[in-house]
Amino acid sequence: MPEAPSAAARDLVATMTGFARTLRAAGVGADHQRTQGFLTALGHLDVAAERDVYWAGRLTLCSGPDDLARYDRCFAAYFAGERPRQGRPRTTVTVTRLTAEPYGSRDREEAGEQSAAPATASEIEVLRHRDVARMTAAEREQVNRMLALLRGARERRGSRRFTPAHNGVLDSHRTVREAIRRGGEPARLHMRTHRDRPRRVVMLVDVSGSMAPYADTLLRFAHALVRAEPRATEVFSAGTRLTRITAELRHRDADAAMLAVSAAIPDWSGGTRLGEEIKALLRLADPRGATVVIASDGWERGSAELLGAQMARLSRLAHRVVWVNPHKGDPAYRPLTAGIMAALPYVTDFVAGHSLAAFEDLAGLLAAGTRGPARTGRRSHA
């Protein structure tokens, strides 16, 4: 009978598969087969040697040259260590060697002990599922670094424009023009097909007082979406008024973008009038065919009836409506507030937004999307 794997072996597998998930979120082709190859390679190497882990992952998890830069960034962020040097360095670089510490050292630091080491790989795996409202400043900074690595891919949709293709419908104009150039001699048939483009995302982030613990993280997720598809993303903040913040989020650096957003939003930590703001959103941002993401806990100070009416209008126009509620990550949470109860009948997907893992799932939802008609009569509130 085969021997059951030890706890240390299970922890190692969980840590390394978590690294592979991080790579996939950043756009590296680290699929299941490549992950299995990575784990098999580690079985023949010294997993305590950082160089061995680095090269095992680089040779098994990357699918092409485009993945190498992303892999290096993810490795540095996930393992918080110095990656092996490649060839002779052109300049002298000073690197601070970071030592691993067992999980729980944060508690000792809060008790008064001094420690400058950031989160290690095992800590990051725990942080992926931790509520951001309960994190220390150092843990939140680590999660912000991981959020900056999100790929922010989009579901593709067909457009009305055509592009040349090997298969598709006959492109009569190009075919006739080539025949004319040949003096009327028969020419090969040219084909064309519809182009595809990323589906637009319109995101509304609640920055009221009840959402204060989550607003910064949600805005950083929005920054990753804008950075990935700047022409197919619109972001608004919602408080006592609606504010367009897309331009501020186009800064390449996430911290610079957050500073610009802070200066642009006049109603931080105020109340929420979601019904009026969704009405304004329908006027300012055309939601037709777009995926609309509303990040809010649903505490509505205005009229719940108005919110329900505007959500009904929005659901008829949008491709899908995704409601992100940070409190949904709590197993004891029940959607009982008047705002949530008025909105849920018109929501396609009701998802959590309290942790790094929840944001990775949301990014995957926006990348996969749905195929076929936008309205199927089914709602996902689980």
UniProtKB/TrEMBL annotation:
PANTHER family: BLL5662 PROTEIN, BLL5662 PROTEIN-RELATED. InterPro entries: UCP010256, Uncharacterised_CoxE, vWFA_dom_sf. It comes from the Bacteria. Residues 100-121 are annotated as: Disordered. This is VWA domain-containing protein. The lineage of its organism: Bacteria, Bacillati, Actinomycetota, Actinomycetes, Streptosporangiales.
